[in-house]
Structure formats: structure tokens, C-alpha cells
From TrEMBL:
Residues that hold pyridoxal 5'-phosphate according to the record: G277, E311, P312, G313, R314, Y410
Residues carrying N6-(pyridoxal phosphate)lysine: K95
Protein name: Diaminopimelate decarboxylase
Keyword Lyase: yes
Amino acid sequence: MKTHHPSASLQPDFATLLKTHPGLEAAPAPGTGGELCFGGQSLKALARTYGTPCWVMDGGVLRTRCQALAGAFKAALSTPLPDGRSAVCCHYAVKAQDSLACLAIAAQEGYGADIVSGGELARALKAGMKAEAVVFSGVGKSDSELADAIKAGIGQINVENEGELERIASLASAMGRVARVALRVNPDVAAQTHDKISTGRAEDKFGIAWEKVPALYKSVQQAEGHSALRMVGLAVHLGSQIMDPQPYRQGYQRLAQLVRQLHAEGLRVDEIDCGGGLGIPYQGEEAMAPQAWAHIVAETLGGLGARLHVEPGRWLTGPAGVLLASVVEIKHGARDFVIINAGMNDLLRPALYDAWHGILPTTLPAPGTPLHEADIVGPICESSDIFARNRPMPPFKRGDTVAILDAGAYGAVMSSTYNTRPLAPQILIDHGQVAPLRKQQSVEALLAAETMPGWLLPGQR
């Protein structure tokens, strides 16, 4: 077994992970480095109560981050618009973490919703978000999804192409409604993030080529009064996990150029949707603060007379969640493996994006305990089911529990039942209380959702 030497690794150590992650702390425990707590609750105790794997969200962390990001934008864009409206609106990106409880917390903090499906619209409304504060983005919106959005009277639909615009007009006309629409611009800007979550390049499937926008915008807005559409503005979304300010600046400058061109033609631009994508430092790397993002938005788009919209998700929810898992086996050989009972069916990001997540034992090792490099892997029958390679860890035994950090974004929402593994429970810690958000799915419930043709039933042949 290979002993780890801290100077040879760029990975943050346990102390650094504790220091840099809100809500985490080590409670004193004799003979150890402390018992890991999240939101004031012992994670080891939660694992005993709710089982593992288990998703844990800290409502206090989520609430604090909602306040911090909204505060940064309100400070940067403090002057109301001439009509008295706030200069900026924050919309929670539902796709990052869609539990009703988390949506309710965001709604209490004044957030609207950024949705990408009819299902997310239903979630947002059920959680108490106002329809007029909902923005509908994403490619491939179905007719039924668009009809539901129009019927609900949402704030705006970010249109991806001409065909979608025609369908919205037809649906709204048949319903006797007027749909508020914005054109999603593809600015052909690389977000300098993972290829699979970059959405603002010309070759990406998202948005309308920026050079085609003015003519389309003009044709729709000039037809207002004779159609079922109201053209309210422009939208852009460059990608996810953005750490560098330059893509934001470049994309927003191109958007501002379009707005000025539309103004020069006598056209109205009421709303500008700036998208989201603000990244978090999973591995302790340098990351943008909300204040820096807000400053760029204000500097590039703040003087154009439009209400601005931002759609954070990962930055709000990522550090607010952990995934608890238990050690099933330890395997020594060409590599040392710690096999846990959470898999890529639970947390897909490491397998899909080669993403790095901090991992902490729920009982931290005593000072001076030798650490050894091991691979932390799941039980799924895929070689990509790996959470960490060569990660310095203390000795483990069967039944020990670990916490995978920064799992609050794109974690539970991307879970599946691959290998017929039921969905893990979700719980919320908030105001000193613990409550289940989703119960542990049983194999029986999973199978009950299926039917078998009568001729295939046992004894029917």
C-alpha cells in the first residue's frame, strides 16, 4: 500500500476541505480528528438513521448563498429602472437541484425560476414561485410544455429558433393569449469550461446565430398587435462551471452590441437574460465571486434601460449538499480500492465529466494518522464508476461512512436506477431540524412502475 506524502499532491487536504466548505465542521470525538458535521448534524448519525447512499442538503447554506448572490447583484445594479422596477431579477436554475424544499427556500429569498421543461414548471409553481418570475429556456420544448407555460402566464419564453417561435405564436393564438418571448442569442463565445457543458459556441445546439437575431427580432416586434407574441428582449447562456471572467465579458459585450443595434432601429428591449453558469472551486482552484460576475453584468449591460435577469444554480446549491455513502469492501492489488455503496447511478458527474469531488471520512483521522492513496469506487458494472483516483485516505473498514462534497448541484437530479438500484433518499437540515425530502425507493416500488404483457406471465405458455 502506497503511503501518501502531502508535498507530492496538489489535492486539498482534509483540513482545507473543512475550512473551505460552508456548513462543515468537526465535532470533538476522543481518539479521532473529530466527527464530521453538516448543518450542525452528525453525518455519521444521519447515515445510521436514514441509511446510505443518502443525499443531505443544508438549507442554511443554500439560504445564505441565495442572499449573497442576490445581494451582490443588487449592490452592482442598485438604481431602479425608470418605470420603478428593480434593475435585476434572480432566477434559481431548477435543473441544478429540483427538490421542492430547495425551490421553496429560493422562493422565500425572492428568487424566480429558470426552467428547461414542463416538469420543472410544475415543480416551481408547486414550490410557491410566481409564474411571472419564471423563465423557460432550453431546446426542444414540446407543444404541450409551451402550452402549459403560456397558460400559466410565465415571465418569458427564451426562443431557440424560428420554428419554435412559430409554434408559440400558433399555440398562444389558439388559446387567446399573448406570449412573452425573448430570442436566445448564440454569441459564438467559448465558455472555457468542460466541452459537454459549453453552450455558447456556434457549433453548440443552443440559440440563434447572433447575426440572424436583428431581422427576426424586428419582424416579430413590428407585428405586435397583429400576432399572439410580445417580443420583450434577448437571452444568452454561455455554459456551466465558468471560472474565468473573460467569457462573460466577451459574451455580454456581443449582446450589448445587439441591443444597441436594435435600439438604433427604433426597437424596444425590455428584458435581457444574462444566463448563469457561475462556477465553484471543487478542488480549491481560483474561482469568480458573485461580486465579480455582477460587476461584469452591470458594466456591460447595465446602462441599456432593460431589466436584467441572472440564472444561478451550481453556485447556490453545490456546496449546500453532500452525498453520504458506506464502505462495502476494501480491495488490495495493482491498485488499492475502497468500494462504497454509492455509484455513478447516484452521482454521475465523475464518470460523465471526470469531475473532482472532495471526499471526507465522517470520522476524521487523528493527527499523525498515516494516509494512503486509494481509488474510491462504486458498485456499478462500469469501469468509469470511479469517484476518486489516488486519493489520500486513512485506513477504512467495512461499514465506515464517507461524505462526498459539493454534491448539491447536478447530483440527485441526474440520478438513475441503472443496475436496478433504487433512488437514494434525500434529507434536509434547516433551522436545526432534519426532515426527509424523498424516501428511500424500494425495489418493489421500482418494479411496480412496470407492467408485463399477459402472454409473458409465468404459466401462460
